[in-house]
Design goal:
Elements: E1 5-9, H1 16-30, E2 36-40, H2 43-53, E3 58-62, H3 79-85, E4 89-92, H4 95-100, H5 105-117, E5 121-126, H6 130-134, H7 138-149, H8 155-158, E6 162-165, H9 179-197, H10 199-204, E7 206-210, H11 218-222, E8 229-232, H12 239-246
Parallel strand pairs: 1-2, 1-8, 2-3, 3-4, 4-5, 5-6, 6-7, 7-8
The protein binds 1,3-dihydroxyacetonephosphate.
Length: 255
């Protein structure tokens, strides 16, 4: 049985001092976690986060990286820079980046491949908007995002990838997908990966749910057959709430 991977996406929140305070509060609360715990923090918090989590069970991720190794790309950060800091994971293609910063399936693919080449584990985000869901295009959008966004990612590389299904309409809105909505969308996504990489690889792939996941709804979502974890925004900024999500599966504390 898979454990769960619970990742916090702090987005553009927490100064360095605030990040240190949050991590110091969080670390003892999740020290005995049965699940994998990741915090994806702003670039300016990465160094502190890596130092503070050294020797603990909490892993550190960034929230984006560029696809080139170096060069004239003002404002961008190369995967190797993250790797050298001790960062293990990187969120790629979050819907906020797709919406506000021109991210496309093509740039998602490029960033994912660059992250993998540098030895980082990408957390690749996909998901439909409300309009797409309401017009019956959810499956079409997810199919495009997986087909284009993983075009020449190899089966071997896929083993280091986490996918996060984040319906855009559920992000930061307080509207969570129901357990069944999230599970059935993730089943559909898993089938797309099975068609491309085979059933064993698709079954082994971790697919998280993200979108208004919190300490009240996490247990139900994480108990679903295909939901392998969560990518948590707002609730990851409060140590007690994030720790409660980490501990909400398995509900009896055992695996
Ligand atoms: P919220 O948990 O704040 O809805 O954010 C979800 C998300 O976008 C995680 O990447």
């Amino acid at each position: 049985m898979k454990n769960k991977i619970i990742a916090g996406n702090w987005k553009m929140n927490k100064t360095r001092a605030e990040a240190e305070a949050l991590l110091k509060e969080l670390l003892p609360l999740v020290a005995d976690a049965a699940n994998t715990v990741i915090v994806c923090v702003p670039y300016t918090d990465l160094y502190s986060a890596v130092e503070l989590t050294r020797g603990t069970n909490v892993h550190v991720g960034a929230q984006n990286c560029h696809w080139k190794e170096s060069g004239a790309f003002t404002g961008e950060i190369a995967p190797s820079m993250l790797k050298e800091l001790g960062v293990e994971y990187v969120v790629i293609g979050h819907s906020e980046r797709r919406t506000y910063f021109g991210e496309t399936d093509g740039t998602v693919l490029a960033r994912t491949k660059a992250a993998l080449a540098a030895g980082l584990k990408p957390i690749v985000c996909i998901g439909e908007t409300l309009a797409e869901r309401q017009s019956g295009r959810m499956e079409e959008v997810l199919t495009r995002q997986v087909t284009e966004g993983f075009k020449d990612v190899t089966a071997e590389q896929l083993a280091d990838v986490i996918v996060a299904y984040e319906p855009v309409w559920a992000i930061g809105t307080g509207v969570t997908a129901t357990d069944e909505q999230a599970n059935s969308a993730i089943k559909f996504v898993r089938k797309l990966f099975a068609d491309k990489y085979g059933k064993a690889a698709a079954d082994a792939l971790y697919i998280q749910y993200g979108g208004s996941m919190n300490d009240a709804n996490a247990a139900g979502l994480l108990a679903m057959s295909d939901i392998d974890g969560g990518l948590i925004g707002g609730a990851s900024l409060v140590a007690a709430k994030f720790a409660a999500i980490v501990h909400s599966y398995p509900s009896d504390g055992k695996r």
